[in-house]
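S1.2 Input.
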Amino acid sequence: MNFSKEDFYFDLPEELIAQKPLADRSSSRLLTLDKKTGNMEHHIFSDILEYLNEGDCLVLNNTKVIPARLLGIKEGTETKVEILLLKRISGDLWETLVKPGKKLKEGSTVIFGNGLLKAKIVKILDDGNRHVEFFYTGIFEEILDQLGEMPLPPYITEKLQDKNRYQTVYAKKDGSAAAPTAGLHFTPELLEKITAKGVHIAYVTLHVGLGTFRPVKVTNIKEHLMHSEYYEVPLKTAELINQTKQNKRKVICVGTTSCRTIESAADENGLLKECSGNTEIFIYPGYQFKVLDSLITNFHLPESTLIMLVSALAGKDEVLKAYQEAVKEKYRFFSFGDAMMISDFTK
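S1.3 Output.
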C-alpha cells in the first residue's frame, strides 16, 4: 500500500504546542490506545504503573542531550553565527548545521566566548551541513557546558529556565542534539515503583539527531531518506529483552528512539545481541515489528516520520482518530507535551 505524506495530516491549533515542561514530570496526561480494539482512555502519566506487569521489560534510551547550540562571531567581522552540533565525526571534528550558511565558506573561522573556543569550517556537505574542527585549551565538554545552549526544537519559542528539564532523569551518555522526549515524563520515584512491581528496565542508547525534525518533503513517503543515527545495545539489555520475549511478556519501548534502536538491532527472528552501529530505519504502516509489543510516546507533528511510525503500530486511521480526540480534549503536544501508550490491553 502506498501512502502520501498528506495521509498523515491532522489539524493542530498552535496553542496546544507545549512551550514549557510541567512542574511535576509525571503529572502529564496519558491517553491509552488499544491497538487491537481502538479503545481510548484518559489518565495521568503516573497511572502508567497500572499497565506495566511483572516480567515486562521497559526499554529506555539513556542518551544525554549536549548543549549543542553555540553562538559566536565570524573572525575578522561582526557577523553573528550559530553553529549546531549534530554528530561527532572523530575527536574535535563535528558535523554541524550553521547559520548564516552563505557567510561561512570552507576555511572560515568562528570565535566563541572571546576566543575560549574556535571553529574552522573544514568541508561543506551536499546537504549544506558543515564539517567543523574545534580548537580550545582544556576539556571540550566543560567548555561546551559553559558556552553552549540546549538546542530546543523550532516550535518551542520560550527560553528554558532549567536546562535539565530537557533531559531525562536517567540520561547518561552524551551525544544527542534533541531529547528522547517520551522519557521526560518519568521521575526517579516512578521508576522505583516500576522496578518494585517486578518490571525489568533495559537501557539502549540512540543519539538523537535533528533529522528527527526534518520534514517529509516527498509526496510518496517511501521515497523519504532518513537521517543516520548512532545506537548501542549492551549485552545485558539484549539478554533481558530476549528473555522477556521467551517468557511471552511485553517489551515496552519508551519513545520512538528506543523502538527504532531495538528494531534496527534485531535479527529476522526478533533476537537481539550486543551491538552498535548507525541506523536509518524508517518505520511506516506495513512494517512488521520484530520485538516491540507496546509503545509509550508523545504526540508528534503532522506528516512527520514519527506519526508514521506510531501508525505502523496501531493503524493510521486509529492513530489519527486518537490525535483528533487529543486535540478535542486539549492535550499538550510535542516535546514538552503529554503522552500516549499504545498496546494490546486485552492481553
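S1.4 Remarks. Residues 69-147 form a domain with the Thrombin, subunit H fold (CATH 2.40.10.240).
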